[in-house]
Automatic annotation (TrEMBL):
<dbReference type="GO" id="GO:0046294">
    <property type="term" value="P:formaldehyde catabolic process"/>
</dbReference>
<feature type="active site" description="Charge relay system">
    <location>
        <position position="147"/>
    </location>
</feature>
<keyword id="KW-0378">Hydrolase</keyword>
<dbReference type="Pfam" id="PF00756">
    <property type="entry name" value="Esterase"/>
</dbReference>
<feature type="active site" description="Charge relay system">
    <location>
        <position position="256"/>
    </location>
</feature>
<comment type="function">
    <text>Serine hydrolase involved in the detoxification of formaldehyde.</text>
</comment>
<dbReference type="InterPro" id="IPR000801">
    <property type="entry name" value="Esterase-like"/>
</dbReference>
<dbReference type="InterPro" id="IPR029058">
    <property type="entry name" value="AB_hydrolase_fold"/>
</dbReference>
<dbReference type="GO" id="GO:0052689">
    <property type="term" value="F:carboxylic ester hydrolase activity"/>
</dbReference>
<protein>
    <recommendedName>
        <fullName>S-formylglutathione hydrolase</fullName>
        <ecNumber>3.1.2.12</ecNumber>
    </recommendedName>
</protein>
<feature type="active site" description="Charge relay system">
    <location>
        <position position="223"/>
    </location>
</feature>
<dbReference type="GO" id="GO:0018738">
    <property type="term" value="F:S-formylglutathione hydrolase activity"/>
</dbReference>
<keyword id="KW-0719">Serine esterase</keyword>
<comment type="similarity">
    <text>Belongs to the esterase D family.</text>
</comment>
<dbReference type="InterPro" id="IPR014186">
    <property type="entry name" value="S-formylglutathione_hydrol"/>
</dbReference>
<dbReference type="GO" id="GO:0005829">
    <property type="term" value="C:cytosol"/>
</dbReference>
Length: 278
């Protein structure tokens, strides 16, 4: 693992690393924010999964999470959103919603994607093992994300009971098998059999009996992707039917951008802190 940048931030450190990922079969970069408390004790860790087109940098540079994370004593880890590099497949037209920057946090089964696009295994197993081996973090984990990554966070938490103490999302692509972004990605990565899609669709996981955990969603009401791509009503209905507690917060006037995320990131960090024992 190679350290490639260090920035002091609110008494702690923002750091970027490069490493070879055996799940993704390529070099990957991730970022970690370590609060000052990590100098003397193991701190809980929040994994943040970004949305389409992002890298490890968008959240760290735009969300403004470090101020409160430093006060809480919370580490934050940001992976990239897809495998990258020479030999890694991309969409034929380099579309922003498939291939590079658009891994959707699934394990692809279809060529040419299946040789690298295994973001599910990377985020669930390989990255946390690496983080817990090399950094002063405890086994108290939470997971959050935005849009594609908001869905990834909820989906991964529901599929791995006990691994995360809480999960949250900004503007998640709630029901990917029913919206254009999700259908395009799942058809490419998982194939045309829609039964295979259900294993990675949050609404389908809830409908088929996934065990709940504390979940929070923040959604801007002026988000241009709301009606066509995000479908939060399907998530809310599935959670209600299943008796799963979902704290849903609708915000008039806010859009899909990091201006929205920065406005409510403190609320989500406080939500996680209350479940991480901070
Ligand atoms: N490029 C697409 C959407 C891309 C987009 O909104 N990406 C979100 C995640 S879904 C993002 O976080 N973009 C990077 C940023 O704002 O820093 C478009 O403009 O229609």
């Amino acid at each position: 693992m190679e350290n490639i940048s260090n920035n002091r931030s609110f008494g702690g450190w923002h750091k970027q690393y490069r490493h070879y990922s055996s799940s993704l079969n390529c070099e990957m970069r991730f970022a970690i924010y370590l609060p000052e408390q990590a100098n003397s004790q193991k701190v809980p860790v929040l994994y943040w999964l970004s949305g389409l087109t992002c890298t490890d940098e968008n959240f760290m540079q735009k969300a403004g999470a470090q101020r409160l994370a430093s006060q809480l004593g919370l580490a934050i880890v940001c992976p990239d959103t897809s495998p990258r590099g020479e030999g890694v497949a991309d969409a034929d037209d380099a579309a922003y919603d498939l291939g590079l920057g658009a891994g959707f946090y699934v394990n692809a089964t279809q060529a040419p994607w299946s040789s690298h696009y295994r973001m599910y295994d990377y985020v669930v197993d390989e990255l946390p093992a690496l983080i817990e081996q090399h950094f002063p973090v405890s086994d108290k984990r939470a997971i959050a994300g935005h849009s594609m990554g908001g869905h990834g966070a909820l989906m991964i938490a529901l599929k791995n009971p006990g691994r995360y103490l809480s999960a949250s999302a900004f503007a998640p692509i709630s029901h990917p098998s029913q919206c254009p972004w999700g259908q395009k990605a799942f058809a490419a990565y998982l194939g045309s059999d829609r039964e295979a899609w259900k294993a990675y669709d949050t609404v389908e996981l809830i409908k088929s009996g996934a065990k709940g955990l504390p979940m929070r969603v923040d959604q801007g009401e002026s988000d241009l992707f709301l009606a066509e791509q995000l479908l939060p009503q399907a998530l809310r209905a599935a959670a209600t039917d299943a008796g799963i507690a979902l704290s849903f917060h609708s915000h008039p006037g806010y859009d899909h951008s990091y201006y929205f995320i920065a406005s409510f990131i403190d609320e989500q960090l406080k939500f996680h802190a209350s479940h991480l024992g901070l």
